[in-house]
What we know:
The structure holds 2 protein chains of 2 kinds. By secondary structure, chain A is an all-alpha fold. Chain A is built from 8 helices and no strands. In chain A, α1 packs across α8, α2 (21-35) packs across α4 and α7 (102-119) packs antiparallel against α8. The two termini of chain A are 21 Å apart. By secondary structure, chain B is mostly helical. In chain B, 70% of the residues lie in helices and 0% in strands. In chain B, α2 crosses α3 (53-70). The model of chain B has no long low-confidence stretch (mean pLDDT 96). Chain A binds chain B through residues 30-31, 34-35, 52, 55-56, 109-110, 112-114, 116-121, 123, 125-126, 128-129, 132-133, and chain B through 27, 30-31, 34-35, 50, 103, 106-108, 110-115, 117, 119-120, 122-123, 126.
Amino acid sequence: MVDWTFEERKHIIETWGKINVKVVGPLALRRCLIVYPWTQRYFGTFGDVNSAAAIMGNKKVAKHGITVLNGLERAVQNMDDIKNTYAELSVLHSEKLHVDPDNFRLLGDCLTIVLASQMGRAFTPDIQAAWQKFLTVVVSALGRQYH
Amino acid sequence: MLTKHEKELIAKIWDKMIPVASDIGAECLLRMMTTFPGTKTYFAHLDIRPGSPHLRSHGKKIVLAIAECSKDISSMMVTLAPLQTLHAYKLRIDPCNFKLLCHCILVTLAAHMGDEFDPVAHAAMDKYLSAFAAVLAEKYR
């Protein structure tokens, strides 16, 4: 059970409110595939992901970015029980998709940097800290059903 | 592995940060200490409240060192030799913290540069900072 202060909850919910999933999802996933190219290993069926240019233009990558961010919304809406909210997703990523759970942290970091580039100075240190605490909980929940 | 283009890109970005080194440096440190409170343990001797002159002067030192090194990345091992010794024998900061500061440097650059800090710039910068951190830790043992 995670302890959220009033401020942290406020920061997380307000930050989420500023995110346009259709824009930020693709930006975050593309960035992850470019900055950490080994993550491309999970996208063999997505067509050409072999260069930054190809990744930026890849429609399947963009669509999947939206899927991932829509999944994150469930955590925002269930902040007091992220662990159970993500139990099935965790099993899926472990048993079916076989994703190394360290990748969740990499994608989370890319998402944080996309937010910083969009929000600029408004992404204050306090907001960053609350947001990253939230992502740490999400990442932990997604990795929990790996055995 | 950094390409010639990436090295030029990195040098260009840091060159722009030199005039605002105190601001950028202080922000990086503040972000790190707020998001990763364990890092505050290394600063018990300083005033680390937002805006403090200690944060600004310490942040400036860090930014200028990174900027200076970016002008000739191939000579990193030579340029950083004194800092390697300082970190290994005097400061003894656990190297796991270097990646926390690197992440906060990336966040600060993104917040200041907006769209200009695109995935290609981000990748190049992440590689440079990782290499910098690795070289800094080389004399630890």
